[in-house]
Amino acid sequence: MEIFLFSLICxxxxxxxxxxxxxxxxxxxxxxxxxxxxxxxxxxxxxxHVLNWYELVPVVSFIVQKRRCRKCMCxxxxxxxxxxxxxxxxxxxxxxxxxxxxxxGIESLTYEVIIALxxxxxxxxxxxxxxxxxxIPYWCTGTIAVLGVIATVLSVFMPTKVVWYEHLIxxxxxxxxxxxxxxxxxxxxxxxxxxxxxxxxxxxxxxxAVFIAMIIGGVFxxxxxxxxxxxxxxxxxxxxxxxxxxxLYGYEIIHWYSNLMAG
Length: 263
Ligand SMILES: [Zn+2]
Known about the structure:
The chain is mainly alpha-helical. Helices cover 68% and strands 2% of the residues.
């Protein structure tokens, strides 16, 4: 494919993810205040200045305005840029991994790609919120569950990586034991719901996803213990990384592991 066209597509995917991140950030910021996030136009939280379209371009506006509101010159929270960059970047990562390119253009574009472009920004949002308030927002888990239902229904009609009943197995295979841990008080209910929703979407790939989450979470936990810093460790961000890797490479990891075991 021509390098110019390729760059243009990459830029568009990144900006799509970043715009979604910007929108999700508004939901995160306005949600607790019970403010309408669709009808109310975006405004500066300090002076109430309603933002123009050129002040709403993801990432670009933040950099051009040097992190300040154009009216009152107050500093804009770093969370805005972080959400936009992470959502845009993760959407691009998913796109590059799942789409096959050829010299003519895009070779294959499946519904898995479209789902990923929504899933990855949602994973970023729930991680940011879990780190901030140690709670996974319901709308994030709900969105992933809806994506799971859509993927399950579509898998009945089209040939895919994940067969329809594997979606159903994925929903319970990890979430059920997690629910027991939760009952015993060793785990948060939000993590169980997220595992069930993501399992419905990922099928068997939820197993390596959770293993990856536990390994990264474990390493992080030990590092925190050693540094003797007091910190609440939330599992949401680790689960999100695991789910992202599981969605993109889960079945490859399972094949690799079963070949390894078979010798
Ligand atoms: Zn302002």
